[in-house]
Request: fold
Amino acid sequence: MIGPQFRGPESSFVFGATDTGKSRLLVRKALMYRRHANAQIIDAFGAENDSESTVWVLAPETRDSTLMIVGNEVDPQGWDLTMPISEFTLDKAKDYDVIITDRALFGPVDERKWNDRYYAALAKIFELVKRRKGQRRLLALMVREAWNLIYSQIKANISRDEQEAMQEFRKLHNQRAHSNVATLVDTQRYTDFAASVRTLTDYQYIKGFGSQPVPSELEFLFKPWLFGAQSGREWMMRNTPLDEFIVLTKRNGVGYGTYADIPWHVEKGYSPLDKLGITFPLKPQEASVEKADLGDAVYVPANNDQHRMMQDLHDQGLGYEAIADKMTDAGIQTSWEKVRYHLQKKCACVVTMEPGRSGKEPSP
Reply:
């Protein structure tokens, strides 16, 4: 079996029950991409309660080149390498080895739509990665919690539902060779991602099914002829030790491996930010970003461009269904419900009028 080379835009799918070491394996793989290909790492889609994505500030080889993407309304304390989300682009951050963000980096819960700001930031980061053109430096995109990526697309009005959000991830996954992005995805359930994504993934890492049902396509892993009748592999499939894994390749190769522990990786439930005393208090209300500015709602190219196109067609007298048909014919899959959503101003788009436009506001 030809294993991962860690030099190009390979894709990896790590799945298994809780407390099986999935995140540590994901971090280990990201480090391998950095060491073998000088890849830049983006770790943004993590758990929401322990700031696990910020663990890179503890890593001896990356902590001096780890950039935190923070909310526009916070005043970072204890970490100098920060950039507000409204200023973030991949080009501006190209000299950093690791780019991270987390819910905690957008300040405490307040009345200023903190939840929307965070998910809008995730949507912007994903959109910039998805639209990335092939560049010399490899980018390793870590997705520790698959649902967080999917939900951010829905919350930021990029996708209408989970199916549309999955389609956006599928685009990134299938075009990774053109954008030079290696995707590293971690999820608890094997079926969290569509079969069209799983079957095109270069490497699938099993970290223990626990009591979860095994999909029929993986039942062959329990056959005695694969590992031997007395190998104990069936037990390991359900109770994988923290430093072990089974790997499948898209060419039906099967392998077994181990990996060294990461001594600086914090235990689940303990925040690296708390360990280092890094905080993100909100700026005083009077110094916060004005509502007229982009703020943390961020500019999302695909959404705003689609909104402008809908508005143009609506100004020409077309109804919701006709607009949806026109956009679909142009290669932008759109439903009439999504058109209505935007034209009734329920979205968070920031649409600038182009020169020569009348400035007419859309009406439902």
Notes: The longest strand covers residues 181-187. The chain is about 30% helix and 15% strand.
